[in-house]
Specification:
Number of strands: 20
Structural class: alpha+beta
Radius of gyration: 21 Å
Helix content: 25-40%
Distance between the termini: 10 Å
Low-confidence stretches: none
Number of helices: 11
Amino acid sequence: MSKRNVHVMALDFGNGFVKGKINDEYFVIPSRIGSKTSEDNQLNGFVEGKLDVSEFIINNNEDEILLFGKDLDKVTNNGKDTASTNNRYNYKAFKDLVECSIGLLAREIPDDVIDVVIASGMPSNEIGTDKEHTFYKTLNKNRLITIDGISKTINVLGVKLIAQPMGTLLDMHMENGKVYKSFTEGKYSVLDFGSGTTIIDTYQNMKRVDEESFVINKGMIDFYKKIASHVSKKAEGSPVTPRQIEKGLELKTCEISKRMSIDFSEDFEKEQENVIESVMSSFETVIGNINTIDRVVVTGGGANVHFKALSKYYPNIFEMAEDSQLSNVRGYEKLGELLKKKVENED
């Protein structure tokens, strides 16, 4: 009897972006979902391959065609954010996001029927709660997904969920299914600047130290919102979105229109100082003596934005995760490889 060919899907469902990996293929796409409407010609551009958006039909439900991709907002005005710190896992938009993300990874495998295990993560304070159970159920089922006319039957043979920051630590301290000895004996903190949350998790001997860990239900989206509010006032009340601020980060300039751009460098520095002071105050209160920590790793989509400002507090203490936006998903994949072996051995 031939051995099953099981693939590992690693998925990180951030409030701002979904990150996915299967084999050597990655994607990073805004956590937004849309649907195709019958009355407009929104698909002309990407049917010809000009835009990065795909159509998804889930379990033959042709009454609803979902849209997902980097250029979603260029083809429809009904795109929905899936960010939430409350009942995110119960929302239909989030469940649709999960299906489309799984479908997008499945498209990378040439077979019509695919056996997979899925590894993902969630905020540390949600592990062991009803939210974990709900998320697990959403992932752990077989599905038929049609992506741009190509149908894939996806058999889910196992699911593993861990605290998000543990993904980064496994990425750094695990190779070929084995965890480095220094990690199993050391004490590490992870500062994860996500879109919707800011997490500080401390691990000793690979176990989370609850009293030295915390989650702030504010993240990079909130940071950008505050800057957007300043910019809007300077633009005489013109609406400004967090995405416009994020888009203009490199030059610290927000394009209101082709005729008007607003410099927000001073607003950026002011709001960044507020964020860093708040995070460091919580960090010092919860951790206590920072000298008891072997390493403090900074990760998440906001790591590149805040790392320099953080380093002013404690030079040589903070360490940036490599390609920080994808560090969690790489760690999930390593964990998924262990689950894959377990499933294959049970066959």
